[in-house]
Design brief:
The structure is a homodimer.
Chain A lengths: L2 E5 L3 H13 L4 E6 L11 H5 L14 H8 L2 E4 L1 E7 L4 E6 L5 E5 L2 E4 L3 E3 L12 E2 L4 H12 L5 E5 L3 H11 L4 E5 L11 H13 L2 E4 L4 E6 L5 E5 L4 E4 L1 E4 L3 E3 L30 E3 L6 E2 L6 E2 L4 H16 L13 E5 L2 E7 L2 H6 L5 E8 L10 E8 L6 E8 L3 H13 L4 H6 L14 H13 L5 E2 L4 H6 L3 E4 L3 H5 L7 E2 L18 E4 L4 H12 L5 E4 L2 H9 L2
Parallel strand pairs in A: 1-2, 1-7, 2-3, 7-18, 9-16, 10-11, 10-16, 11-12, 26-30, 27-28, 27-29, 29-30
Antiparallel strand pairs in A: 4-5, 5-6, 8-17, 13-14, 14-15, 19-20, 21-22, 22-25, 23-24, 24-25
Helix pairs in contact in A: 1-7, 6-15
Chain lengths: ~550, ~550
C-alpha cells in the first residue's frame, strides 16, 4: 500500500489529496497542516470582513473530519513539517498542540506549503494594529476590531489586487481608507493607462491614494493606533494597518533538504511537478512556474493555478504522465467597488521589460448592444505579436462583462490564436449580452487593420512628444464634444465634414487624429490616407484613454 | 472609379458598405433598400415592444443621411431590386415611392437582401390580428395594439429563440401569453433535457406551453381577435398572434438571374462569399453557410455572422483575398425571463442526426464561488469527440455567466481545442466572477475522466430502460436529500458511508449511481470501481437533470 504524505492542506494540497483518493482507494494519504483550518476559502476572506459574506462557516469548505469521511485521508491540523529527509524518505513533524515531534515516512511526498504575506522591515511594524490577511485567524482578528467599532481610519500598504480588495471591503464598513503604493500606479501588473481608470474608481469611492510613496516608520499612538510617516513627509494616522506587499513561500523548512529552491525560496519543479529529489513533488504558491511569453521562471501565487497544479501533481504521483503543467500566464481579476479589472497574458509593460516584439491597441465599447438598457463601457487593451499576429495578452476594465472578455482571450492565447482569429470568434449574441460584433471581435479588427497597414496608431504617451516636434492635433469629434473639452492645441473638424475640409490640413506635418474612443478616428485616418495625408496617426483609445492616463 | 451596388441595407449590407468606403475613398457605393429603414437594431425589436427599450430612436442606428455624411454612400430607401442581369451587369430597381422603374449598373454587386418570416399556410392566417415581427414597421404595428390596451391574450406560434423573446416581452406588458410549438420542446436547436429547464422558466413566468402542437385553423372572432384551433382539438383565443416559425431568404428576384440558389432559395457562395456569377457576391441571412461539423450547407440567419460576412465580402470585392468565411456553427443566446440559454457548436441531437461520433456530459455548478453571495446554478452540457478529444459543442442554461461560458467554448472550438485544453484554461478568478476551477474547467475534467476510463456515465434517458433490465439504482446523496425525493426504486447510501456498506450492494447487477449533479456520484463510482464493482455508471447531471427532463 503506497503512502502519500502531503505538506499543506489548502488549495493545491487538498485538491491533490482528493484526486489521489479518486485515483486509488487503497493508498494511505496523510495531510499535514500547521494551521487550524484546511480547504478554506482564502479568496473570500476580504468579503467576510466586508460583511458581503456573512456566514463564517461558508469560508470553511472542508474540515479534517468531512475530508476523512469523503476521501479517507488522515488530515492532521496543527502539525507542522519542520524538515524533509529525502535520503530516508521521512519528514520531521512538530505537533503544535502537544509539543511533540515525530518522524513520518512516505513513499511519495507532495509539498504544498503555500506562502505567507511578506512583512516589510519598516521600523515599528510589529505594532498590534498592523496586520496581514492570509488565514482564517488573521481574518477573525481583523474582523473583530472592525466589528467592535474601534477603527475609524485604516491604512492599506500595497495597492495590488488583494490590497485593493481589502481597501474596498474595509471602506464598505464605513471606515476611512488610505492606500499607500510605492509604484506610480495601483495593480502594478497592468499598464498605467488602465490602472488610471482604477484610480478614478477608488477615489470616487472615497479611498485616498498615495502613489510613489512608502511608509518609513510606524509610531505607536496613545489609544491603540499608529502614525505612519511616509517618504514624502506625509503623516497618516490609522487604527488598523493592513500590509499587502507580497507573498513569500513557506519553504524555510526545506533549507537543508537538498530540494532545489529558486532565488526567492520557491521550489523548482519540472512540467510534471517533480522536484529534483526522487519521489518529492510540489505545487501551489510555493513553486516557481514558467511564464509562457518570456520562458522565465517566477512565482504566480493564484488559486486557479494552485488547484490545477494539485490535480496534475496527483496524476504524476499516481503514474499518469500524460499531463503537464506548462506554465502560468497570470490571468487575474479583481472587483474594485463596481469596477472589474482583469488581465491575462503579457502587458505592454511586460513586453517592453522582456524585449518581446509587440503592438498594442486600446478600444472602448459598450459591454453589450448600446441600445439595450444598462450598457456600460469596457476599456479593452490588447497586446499582440506583429510578426506571428498571435495574441499576447489583454487587459479589460469595466463594470460588466470584463471576466467574459478576459476568459475568451485567455482561451485564445491557450489555443495559440491570432488577432485574425479574434475577428472570427462566433460569440453568443443577443442584445442583453453582447453586440453583433463583440468587443473581442472589435479589438481583433483594430489590430488587424494596424497589421494590414490600413491605419497607423499612436499611444497616449506619444502625443505630447509628437506635438512638441510639430505634429498637428486633429479632433474629429462633433463640435459639442470638442467644446466640452479637448487636448490642448487641437483643431476640430468633425469626421463627417472632413472630406470637405481637407484643404485646411497641413501636408507637411504629421497629423495626430483622435476621437472619443478611436472608431471615428480610424475612419478619419482612412479618409486622410486616401487623400495623400499618409503621415497620419490615430490615437489608440481616443481621448478617453488620453484623459484617463493624464489623471494618474 | 469602381461602382459598387449593394442590395439590402441592414446588417451585412451596411457593414460591407462601411468597410468598402474605409478601404477606398474613390469608389461609388450605392445601397438599395426596399424598406424605409437601414441599419436598424433588429435584435432589439422585441425589447422595444416590451418597453425594455423605451426610445424608438435607439433602434435606428443609421439613416441614409447619416450614412452619407460618414461614409459617402448613396443609400436609397424604398428602392427594391427586382431583377439582376449578370450578363450586362445591371439591376432592375423599382422606386416604391414614385412607382418608377430604372436600371442601375455595377462593377461589383453585393447581395444582402436578408430574409423574411415564413408565413405558414394555415387557413385564416391573413387575419389582421396575426403578425410577424421582423422590421421597424412590424414593430410599430404590434406595439401600437399592445399600447392601446386591446390585447388581453396573445398567442406565439413557434417556440424558437425569437418566439420566446417575443413571448417574454409581451408577457412583461401584462398580457397572457401562450406558446404553441410543434416539436416536443421549445428551442429546437438545443437538446431536450436543456430545453426542459427553459420550459420551467416559461411556466414559472406564466407562459402557457402547448408542445407537440400545431395550429390547424385561425377563425375570426367578433371584436377583432381570432380563435386558433390546435391539432389536438384545443381552442385558444387571442387578440394578437405572432408567427415565429422560421425565416426564408428574400431571393425571389434572383430567380432568373443565373445566380445559383440552394434548395430553399438561399444564395450559394464560396469561402470568399462569391456567387457563381462574376462580380456578384453575397452575405447575410440570404446565403447558405457551411456547418463546420457536418460539412453540410445550411442557412443560419444570425446577426453576428451577417456582420462578419459583410466585412469579408467587402474585403473580397476590394481584392483582399486573405480572409475567408469558413462557416457558421450557430452560436446563439436568448434571454428567457431571468434565464439565459446559450448554445455553440454541435448538440447531442445534431451529432446523432449527422452520425458524428460524440460523447456528452452534463454538469451543474455555481456560476461563481458558492460561498460568495448571489451564486446561481449553471447547467452545462458538453459534447466532444471520443477519438480526437476535441470539443464539439456546448449548451449552457442559467441565470448568470451563461454567455461567458458559451463564448469560451466557441473560442475553444475555433481553436480546435480538446477537453484536456478546457481543463487548462487559465480563467479570471475572483469569488464574484468564478471559482478556482471554473465550470469550463470542471466540464473538461469530467469529460477527461470519461475518456480516460475513470468513470462510466449514463444519460438520464437511459435510466428507465436500464432499471427495467435489472440495474440497481443507488442514490449517494444524504439521507435528507433522499427523503425529500428520489428516483423511484433507488436505495440510499450516502457517499461518505459507502466504503462501510459495500456488502449491501449486488455484485451481479449494473449499478446506476446518482447524486444531485454528478460530483458525489463520480466519487462513489471511483470507490465502487476500486472495490470490484466495475459495472457501475454515474448519472450525468445527476437527479437535477433527470428531474428536469422528466417534467418536459
Amino acid at each position: 500500500m503506497a503512502k502519500y504524505l502531503i505538506i499543506g492542506g489548502v488549495a493545491a494540497g487538498m485538491s491533490a489529496a482528493a484526486r489521489l483518493r479518486r485515483l486509488d482507494e487503497t493508498t494511505e494519504i496523510i495531510v499535514l497542516e500547521r494551521g487550524e483550518y484546511v480547504s478554506y476559502a482564502n479568496c473570500g476572506l476580504p468579503y467576510y470582513i466586508g460583511n458581503e459574506i456573512t456566514d463564517r462557516d461558508e469560508l470553511l469548505l472542508q474540515t479534517p473530519q468531512s475530508f476523512k469521511r469523503r476521501f479517507n485521508a488522515d488530515v492532521r491540523i496543527h502539525n507542522e513539517a519542520v524538515a524533509v529527509h529525502p535520503e530516508r524518505k521521512t519528514v520531521t513533524v512538530n505537533n503544535l498542540r502537544t509539543g511533540e515531534q515525530y518522524e513520518e515516512s512516505y513513499d511519495s511526498l507532495l509539498l504544498t506549503p503555500g506562502g505567507s504575506p511578506v512583512k516589510p522591515a519598516i521600523p515599528g511594524s510589529r505594532h498590534p494594529a498592523i496586520k496581514t490577511l492570509w488565514t482564517i485567524p488573521d481574518t477573525d482578528a481583523i474582523k473583530a476590531i472592525v466589528d467592535n467599532g474601534s477603527v475609524r481610519k485604516a491604512l492599506v500598504v500595497g495597492g495590488g489586487f488583494i490590497g485593493l480588495e481589502m481597501a474596498e471591503n474595509i471602506r464598505l464598513r464605513g471606515i476611512e481608507v488610505t492606500v499607500v503604493e510605492m509604484a506610480p500606479q495601483v495593480m502594478n501588473a497592468i499598464d498605467p493607462e488602465m490602472a488610471a481608470i482604477v484610480h478614478g474608481e477608488l477615489r470616487k469611492n472615497g479611498i485616498e491614494l498615495f502613489l510613489n510613496e512608502t511608509v518609513t516608520v510606524f509610531e505607536p499612538l496613545p489609544g491603540g493606533g499608529v502614525l505612519a510617516r511616509l517618504g514624502s513627509g506625509a503623516r497618516l494616522e490609522a487604527e488598523l494597518v493592513l500590509l499587502s506587499i507580497g507573498v513569500a513561500p513557506n519553504t524555510g523548512f526545506l533549507a537543508d533538504s537538498g530540494i532545489e529552491l529558486g532565488a526567492r525560496g520557491h521550489i523548482i519543479v519540472d512540467q510534471h511537478l517533480r522536484t529534483n529529489q526522487p519521489d518529492i513533488y510540489a505545487a501551489g504558491d510555493a513553486i516557481e512556474v514558467i511564464n509562457p511569453f518570456s520562458g522565465k521562471r517566477g512565482a504566480v501565487p493564484l488559486a486557479g493555478p494552485a488547484n490545477k497544479q494539485g490535480r496534475i501533481a496527483a496524476d504524476t504521483i499516481h503514474g499518469i504522465m500524460t499531463r503537464c503543467y506548462t506554465g502560468t500566464m497570470g490571468t487575474s481579476i479583481a472587483k474594485v467597488f463596481d469596477l472589474a479589472v482583469g488581465i491575462t497574458g503579457a502587458t505592454e509593460k511586460f513586453c517592453r521589460a522582456e524585449s518581446i516584439p509587440y503592438r498594442s491597441v486600446i478600444n472602448h465599447s459598450g459591454h453589450h448592444a448600446e441600445y439595450y438598457p444598462g450598457a456600460t463601457m469596457l476599456s479593452f487593451k490588447l497586446t499582440f505579436c506583429p510578426e506571428t499576429r498571435r495574441v499576447l495578452g489583454a487587459q479589460v476594465v469595466g463594470y460588466e462583462g470584463v471576466d467574459k472578455r478576459i476568459d475568451v482571450i485567455a482561451t485564445a492565447i491557450k489555443g495559440g490564436m491570432t488577432v485574425d482569429d479574434l475577428t472570427e470568434i462566433e460569440h453568443a449574441y443577443a442584445p442583453p449580452y453582447s453586440s453583433a460584433k463583440d468587443p473581442v471581435n472589435m479589438i481583433g479588427f483594430i489590430a488587424q487593420n494596424i497589421l494590414d497597414g490600413l491605419v497607423q496608431s499612436i499611444s497616449y504617451d506619444a502625443v505630447a512628444p509628437a506635438v512638441a516636434e510639430g505634429a498637428y492635433l486633429l479632433d474629429v469629434r462633433s463640435l459639442g464634444e470638442f467644446l466640452a473639452g479637448t487636448i490642448a492645441g487641437a483643431v476640430n473638424i468633425p469626421v463627417d465634414m472632413l472630406r470637405r475640409k481637407l484643404s485646411k490640413l497641413p501636408k507637411d506635418r504629421p497629423i495626430l487624429i483622435f476621437c472619443k474612443v478611436g472608431v471615428r478616428g480610424y475612419i478619419a485616418s482612412r479618409i486622410l490616407t486616401a487623400h495623400g495625408f499618409t503621415n497620419c496617426f490615430n490615437l489608440s483609445g481616443g481621448i478617453d484613454t488620453y484623459n484617463a492616463a493624464s489623471t494618474m
